[in-house]
Amino acid sequence: MKTPKAIENLINSFEKLPGMGHKSAQRLTFYLLHVPQTQLDSFAESLKNLKTKTLFCSNCMMIDETDPCSICSDSSRDQNIICVVEDPVDVLALEKGGTYKGLYHVLHGKIDPLNNIGPDEIYLEQLFQRVKGEGVRVKEIILATNPTMEGEATAMYIAKQLKAINPELKITRIGRGLPIGADIEYADDMTLKNAMEGRSEI
C-alpha cells in the first residue's frame, strides 16, 4: 500500500527534529490524524507564529517578543554582571531558580570543531562588544556553558579572549552541583542554585 503524500510529508518533517526516529515520527503523525481539526489548526498556528512573533534581543541574543528583551529592560537587575549560556532554554532554567539577578548573554551554541562550529558561528563577538562598550561597566562574567568537553572548551576560549580585552574583569565559572556531562536545562533548581553560588574565578 502506498502511503498518502500528506502523511509521508509530515513523517519526513518530524524525522528532521532532533532525537526523532522514523517510528516515533510515524506514531506522532498517526496520532495527529485522530486529533480534532480545531486542535490541529491551533497547533499549525503556533508553529507559524514561532518565528514570526518572536525576535532576538539585540543586546543579549535571548529570544523574546520585544527588543530589548524583558530581562535586559528590567532596571532592577544588576547591569554589571553577565551570565553566558549556550542556549535560550538555559536562561529559562536559571530564571526558574530565581536566585540570579544579573543579565545574560546567549551564545546559541558552543565551539565544536568536530561539527565545524567555530567561534564565528556563535554569538561571541556580540559578548566581547558588550564588555568593550561604553556606559555600564561590566564587572563580572559568569561562564555557564554546559560542563561537557565542548562547553568547557568554549568557556576557556571566552575567558582567554575576555582577559585580553580587560585583564581586571572578574571571570567566574559555575561549578558545584553540576556533574561533568550534564546539561543545564535538565538540572533541578537546587543544583542550579548551588552551581551559581559555588562559581569559581578563572
Structure commentary:
The termini are far apart. The protein is elongated. Helix 1 packs across helix 2 and helix 4 (88-97) packs across helix 7 (189-197). The protein has helices at residues 5-15, 22-33, 37-52, 88-97, 125-132, 149-165, 189-197, and strands at 55-56, 63-64, 78-85, 102-106, 140-143, 170-173, 200-201. Strand 1 (55-56) and strand 2 (63-64) form a beta hairpin. Helices cover 41% and strands 13% of the residues. The chain has two domains: 5-52, RecR Domain 1 (Helicase, Ruva Protein, domain 3); 56-201, 3-Layer(aba) Sandwich (Dna Topoisomerase Vi A Subunit, Chain: A, domain 2), CATH 3.40.1360. The strands form two sheets. A five-stranded mixed beta sheet has the order 4-3-5-6-7. It has 202 residues and is α/β, with parallel strands linked by helices. It contains seven helices and seven strands, in the order H-H-H-E-E-E-H-E-H-E-H-E-H-E.
Number of domains: 2
Please bin the fraction of helical residues. Answer: 40-55%
Strand segment tally: 7
Structural class: alpha/beta
CATH class of the largest domain: Alpha Beta
Mean pLDDT level: 90
The CATH topology name of the largest domain reads Dna Topoisomerase Vi A Subunit, Chain: A, domain 2
Number of helical stretches of at least 4 residues: 7
> What amount of the residues lies in strands?
5-15%
Q: Could you give the order of strands across the largest sheet?
A: 4-3-5-6-7
First-last Cα distance: 62 Å
CATH architectural label of the largest domain: 3-Layer(aba) Sandwich
The low-confidence parts are: none
